[in-house]
Design a protein that fits this description.
Structural class: alpha+beta
């Protein structure tokens, strides 16, 4: 099953994101469950959220999201986990 993790940063949290980015990217690379990942960008081209496509069940995705260094740094204003069906690409 594929799960889309859609996270939006808290307003004014860019420095929290930058300070924890290396740990977050290492976490992404530490598992083969991450199929795609990247930041959302605001109107100024600055990172302001995340889209991550996970290949695991929903319970596994909840656990994965809870252990993300960005989550532990309290970066996100909101996080959604949504079952997703790849059609193209």
């Amino acid at each position: 099953m594929k799960i889309a993790l859609i996270a939006k940063d808290k307003p004014g949290a860019l420095e929290i994101r930058k300070a924890n980015r290396d740990a977050h990217v290492a976490y992404l690379k530490a598992t083969d469950a991450v199929e795609m990942a990247g930041p959302f960008l605001d109107e100024n081209g600055e990172m302001c959220g995340s889209l991550i496509i996970l290949n695991m069940d929903m319970e596994g995705a909840k656990d994965w999201a809870a252990n993300d260094p960005y989550k532990k740094a309290d970066l996100f204003e909101s996080v959604e986990l949504i079952a997703w069906n790849k059609v193209l690409g």
